[in-house]
Structures are given as C-alpha cells and as structure tokens.
Specification:
Shape: rod-shaped
Largest sheet: 3 strands, antiparallel
Low-confidence stretches: none
Number of helices: 3
Helix content: 10-25%
Order of helices and strands: EEEHEEHH
Mean pLDDT: 77
Strand order of the largest sheet: 1-4-5
Number of strands: 5
Length: 136
C-alpha cells in the first residue's frame, strides 16, 4: 500500500477518525482508507450529517510511519475554529486604546438640593416616651 484516501471539505478541514473536522496537520488523527469505495461510503455518511459540506476525496502518499502525507496546498492557512469571531485589528482594539466611560447627564435636577433642609422632619420621640425609658 503506497497511498490512502482522506476526506477534506471546502473549509480545508479533514475528517478525523472520531468523525470531527480538524485542520489535518496531525496525520495520525486523520480518517484514512486504502480502499476508495470505503472512503466514498464515509464521505456520504459525513455528508448526511451536514449537507452544507462539499466533501472531496484526497489521495495521499504514505510517509515512513504509514501515515498520510497531506500536501501543503491542501492544508491551507492555519484556521481559527469555525464560529469564533474574527480578530480585531490592533489599531481598533478597545483593550489597547480604552475609550473614556461616558458620563451620564442628569435628566432633571433633584427635588431637594443638599443645602436645603428636608421639608418633613423625622418623628421625634415624645417626652413621655423619654421619661418612661422606652425610647429607641
């Protein structure tokens, strides 16, 4: 056996032995088959789980350890996991240049200004309560 078949999708991800899509840089984890018909069956099974994928067979030679040698052009650029937000360029990164916290403008002035005494004075205990000792 001098070559095997691996499965790749339009995002340049490769099917692993555990049926997950990985970047393909770790050849030991890749699904592979020396039989083209087995690889095609696996391709159809993977496509039924996610019909939006465009899966292709890729024929790869084997290295000295018996693992597939995925061509560099098939790997593409190292990819961020799908679903993660794109990185912000450094000149727009809010962590580097923090924006000042906006001050809240008061809508209406308070009803009682601090200089004015309150209109209602707190209740004072009566003289009878103080004499009898039941005051607070």
């Amino acid at each position: 056996m001098s070559h095997v078949y691996v499965l790749t999708n339009q995002h340049q991800r490769f099917l692993s032995k555990s049926n997950e899509w990985i970047d393909g840089r770790d050849a030991g984890k890749l699904f592979r088959s020396e039989h083209k018909d087995v690889a095609i069956n696996q391709m159809f099974e993977a496509n039924t789980r996610d019909v939006s994928l465009r899966i292709e067979l890729l024929q790869c030679n084997l290295n000295t350890k018996g693992q597939p040698q995925v061509p560099a052009e098939a790997l593409g650029e190292p990819e961020i996991e799908p679903g993660t937000p794109p990185e912000t360029p450094p000149e727009q990164n809010p962590e580097i240049i923090p924006e000042p916290t906006p001050e809240i403008e008061p809508g209406e002035p308070p009803e009682i200004t601090p200089e004015e005494p309150p209109e209602i004075e707190p209740e004072q205990p009566g003289e009878d309560a103080v004499k009898s000792g039941s005051a607070l």
